[in-house]
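writing this on my phone so excuse typos. first protein, seq and then structure
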Amino acid sequence: MSKQEILKPITLMGANASGKTEIALELARRLGGEIISADSKQTYKLMEAGTAKPRGTWTDTPAGPAYLVEGVPYHLVDNLDPRSAYDAGTFVKEAKAIMAAVWARGKVPIIAGGTGMYIQAFWNGLDELPAADPEMRRQLAALAETAGRDALHRELVALDPEAARGIPPGNVQRVIRAIEITRLAGRPVSQLWTGRFFDALPAHDGRFYFLKWKKELLAERVKRRTSTRFDEWAEETRGLLARGYPNDCPGLKTLGYPQVMDFLEGRLSKPDAIRAIVTASLAYAKRQNTWFARYKNAVLIELNKFEDYDPAALAERILTS
């Protein structure tokens, strides 16, 4: 990589449990960089075991309070109350302000995460759409909970068949948002999409890398991580509920936490809860890999055996590519 290329922001993306954090830290140490998390779960405070948030500490620095992981500033993690909602628009606004500050300090920004919508929105922008309606979202989420995801999706089919064809029933959040926009705008959401959101990533502005594990190996990593962290995850969730956080707050609705609550309330055994989390995690990983695979201008880093994962070697590969 030339000196000019090194100065470009680096975006490292991949499915959950693919090892993005360790590689991002290697890159940050070598470049004197700072990391911006593009992970919708790791932004929440008090939630570590279930989000794989990198372990760090809040420290006063000349630039203000910073979450430091192994001495590296790691932004947009551990900064939001679990009762609060977070979306792509908010991420873009905050991440762009952080990137500007990182540049002003003469550092290299490194975006690392698996929330594809955040990465796409950051680099290509968002369509002008109505703001969220919390009450409508609650009602639609309740419909999905009581009648099922297919019933919720049929609601979208009735309102906007074209949008429904592009959003699977399993992606409940996107189905809810599409219904919400259609109702608030008074016209089908598919008519409001400009298509800009799905443009290729701007390679002239940054460097993009996609970590892709062989399916069977990623499944093993997810199983291992879920089993290893489950007891800590259960204790963490028990603590959040004891603090008064409602079981339907945004933080506790993120991947895996509903299954942990089912375990705590006796609806699932520990083995069944672990299996349910692994199943949900792998389904999510499949969607993530499908999303990132469409970026033909991102450098694909394939991991076909466990020995391929060496953060130091992979960071070197990125810096010399």
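second protein below, same order as before
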Amino acid sequence: MRVTMVGTGYVGLVSGVCFADFGHQVVCVDKDKSKIDLLKNGGVPIYEPGLEELVAKNVAEGRLAFTTDLKTAVAEADAVFIAVGTPSRRGDGFADLSYVYAAVEEFASTMTGFTVVVTKSTVPVGTGDEVERIIRKTRPDADFAVVSNPEFLREGAAIADFKRPDRVVVGTENERAQEVMRALYRPLFINETPIVFTSRRSSELIKYAANAYLATKITFINEMADLCERTGADVQAVARGIGLDKRIGTKFLHAGPGYGGSCFPKDTLALVRTANEAGTPLQLVEAVVKVNAARKKAMADKIIKACGGSVRDKIIGVLGLAFKPNTDDMRDAPSLDIIPALQENGAVIRAYDPESMDEARDLLPGIAYCDGPYDVAKGADALVILTEWDQFRALDFNRIKMDMASANMVDLRNIYGPEEMASLGFSYTGIGRGS
């Protein structure tokens, strides 16, 4: 089938490349000419394991192309996926849908034949209705259907998530549109992936509900970690003990400095706003948003306490800046709260991240960006793990100890253990590991 992907951000690019790898003819469109030029020249604007190789393969095999010409790309498409950004709107936290609606207004007049218009962007309930209204107003004679098809991609594992998903959700009651979506996802049907056909509004809400639930799970175990610290319990033992209950499950029960990234922060805020407008406040989700924001700020205090109550003029080495490993995404990363708070308290920051330092330089000024974890440790009064990259999991602590001013480790991801670090001569502070 002929697919046009509007937007070459994280969701759009990964989805477009994977559809091409399924055998469809895909054109990815973006207004940013520099981004399109980069893609045409074999580069990729984001870091995602395996993505650059998959782009090169499908371009070489003639199934994937990139352009800034939205109207031509849409005119030739059987399905048009809208995958533009929906960031939190300043002031009220609601999803900013201006990019979605602007794209629809631009391409509506150029559709030919029966066209399925698919919202891949994360959008509040009722957005599909407005997309349909815009198209009807622009092209009263158009033959089309508007479908919701939310993404469930984890940064760092997005290609596997697209090709081997837990489920695919499709929101439409239009039979012709259902057939198009079945054809697009045919390889997943063969693999017996559950494909949920539902109403458009239900589909839109499923995405928000899923992210709010996962954010709640993270926030719950983070609060349990605080209780563990006060009572002498170990949050990792608690998480394992409750996670083995099949009704709960083990995923998203890893205590840390709070959730971040492109989805959970903005989606929980948008869901809260949607619920309030509908007159059904989601008090649990509201609490999750509040607790998570406070947690990220509290992590700086934890580091300060581990440094004897003051970090003034002390060198703090930071390992990891991105919100999670295997991505360069800095959106709402805990580092954006923790590092400025340490700087305000007089700390000197040395930091390293394998992929996100180019973006971090604009967001976190006044930092010495280093060449690797051992460079970070030089002269440091404390070493802080903020992101659990694999390369931080087997460090040579004998070497690190020799280079540090003080053998002090603050592990905000619990990738090491208190006994192990004590045996190496380190003062160790983890998350929820008792007092």
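The two ends are 59 Å apart (CA to CA). thats all i got for now
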